[in-house]
Every structure is written in structure tokens, then in C-alpha cells.
Specification:
3 domains; Tyrosyl-Transfer RNA Synthetase; 47% helix; Structural Genomics Hypothetical 15.5 Kd Protein In mrcA-pckA Intergenic Region, Chain A; alpha/beta; single chain; six-stranded mixed beta sheet; Rossmann fold; 399 residues
Amino acid sequence: MNAFEVLKARGFVKQFTEGAPALLAGDKVTFYVGFDPTGKSLHVGHLLPVMAMAHLQRAGHVPIAIVGGGTAMVGDPTGRDSSRPIMTLERLEENKEGLRRQLSLLLDLSEGQGMLVDNAEWLCEWNYLEFLRDVGVHFPMMPMLNKASVQERLKKGMSFLEFNYQLLQAYDFLELYRRHGCILQMGGDDQWGNIVAGVDLIRRVEQTQAHALTFPLLARSDGKKMGKTADGAVWLDPDLLSPYDYFQYWINVDDRDVGKLLRIFTFLPLERIEELEALSGSQVREAKRVLALEATAIIHGRTEAQKALEGARAAFEGGAAKAAMPQQKVELGVFVTSVLKEAGLCSSTSDARRQIQGNAVRLGEVKVTDVKRALAAEDFVDGEVVLWKGKKKAVRLVL
């Protein structure tokens, strides 16, 4: 398959300009994706475009990753109910360094292979009046106002600062075309309007055809946003989320999502993924183990991924003590505090309450926060669930 066919087969393609498929099916193309350093770490939501970039680089194309030190000073309003907080320059620099390290895990950014650039290099040099005259003149107001993302924000209050964001992103594309011959921008589908604005700007200023491609906004089968848990975002930084917890996120995804996630978040051949998709019943666990192992190895290395796999096996396959849990007892409503005491994980009910209040207790990957929480039938997957106290002590409850 050519590069475009690879992206499509793996689920990376949502919208694209006419000519983008032929472009990616041909010779070496320079393309870019932007990442604003709003935090010191990327999360799983950012990982989708980075994986797409890695596939294109493996096919011989040249990636440019923008760490948006300039655009982050404004803040992308897309998909938000309120303005992003203004960051200090010190915090911005710290965040940029974190993103540079993580992007380098998946992309070869050595000379001639790929590039990492900061749009502050050109955006911060502009005189405001010159920017309005030379760039703003190419942006008709009505198309800008009619964008869905702008319409949503206008209902709740949008500052003129945020309204300028689409001009800055469009100008990034023009600048990269001029500096590096970049003719393709990619991003999430909610960025389609901003990306096409850059395509139009290049056409108006340079009389050249550039291209756009967007990725689907990834959602779980239950309709919730991918990359989020009850505890927050699934971070790539091991200081924010341990390799073990990162592994656990993947191994606990919905069975219905496994095939889709194997395509997007691993480099496994499609033939192998199809074999794993064909598994059913309790065998789906093996597909989840492969997903968790491969996804964790990409970010944290094969050694850490193997350690996480062995830790999970110890808990789920006999390392954790097994305890029978009568179904009638669950139906009547047995408190988790009582189970912790009976299983020997806590010395008393009071101790169990303290552990819950200290955020040390989980049912599977769901944190128990209420001391009056009772076990429920839906807690059990295939008739069992692991009750954790901390990260090392657990009991496997079998319904």
C-alpha cells in the first residue's frame, strides 16, 4: 500500500483536499502537524497524529512538528467553553522541552529526516500593524465568523485575542511552505477550518496548491472521549502516569475498541491485527495484552512494557489471591470496606475507610472514592474483578 492507503486502512483519515491522496501516493512530501505546549506532557489524544506522522515518515515523507511557542500565547479556542489561561514564559519553555522529548520518541528529527520547529521564531518577530496589513488582508470576515468552532465560542464569549488564532495557524502553514516547501498540513477534524484557511492563504499569496488532511476525533464505543479516565488525561510522561498505569489503561479498554486501537496505536502489521480482531469471548484478553504491550513499548520502552505485563499477569492470573464472591452477597450490597477487611487487605473496617479516603483502593482500574461504595454486578468482567489496595496488594474476586 502507498502512504495514503496505509493511513486510511489504519483509521487515520477523516477529511482531505482533492489531490491529497495522489500527493501522499507519490514522491517525498514535506508535511506538518502543530502541537501547542499547553502542558508539560502530551497525552493519548495527541498520540494519534504523532502515530500518523510516524507512518508517513516510514513511507519516506518528511515530518515537521511545530511546538507552538507563539500560538500558545494566544490559545486555540477550538472545542473549548472558555479561554485558555495565559501562561508565564518560564512555564511555556518548560512545556516546550517536555513536548520535544516526547515527539522524539516516535519521530526521527535528525537533519534531512524530520524537523522540530517553534512558531515563536517567526510569529514573535511580527509587528502587529504589519501582520494585519500583509496577512490579515487575505482573510474575508464572513468565512471566519461562519466557522462552527467560532460560532460555538461566540455564544459563550470569545475574545478578539482568540479570534486571531486562525490567522496565526494559517500563517504558520505559509511560513513553512516558504522555508521548507511544506505543502500538507494534518490535524484533528475539529481543525479542518483552520487548516483550510492556511491552504487558502498559500493559494492567495503564492498561487500554489497546498493540501489538508484531518484525523477523526477518536471516541470510545461508549461515546466517551478517548484518552480520558476518571482520574484525568492519560499522560505520556512517566512522572505524571507510571508505565504500569499506562499499560493498565490499554488493557482495560472496551472489547469493541480493540481492533481500532491496535490499528492506530501500534505498528503491528495489519495481517496480525486482523488475527487478533478475530478472537472472541475470553480470548479477547490476549488481543488486549498485545495492544497494551505494544502501545506501552512505543512510549516507555520494551523493558518497562514487559514489566507492566508481568505485573498484570501476577494480579490476574494467579499472583493475586483468589476469593469467591457469592452473587447473592453482591446483589444484597456488600460494602467494599467489608471486602477489604475480609480479604486481608486491610486490618479493619476503619483501616479500609482510611485507604479509600487516601485514594489507595481500586476495583479493576476504577478508583473507589466513596467509603459507602458497594460491589455491583457490573464491576465484574467475565465473572471476576481485581480489588487493589495500593499498587502491589490485590485480591481477585470471582463471582
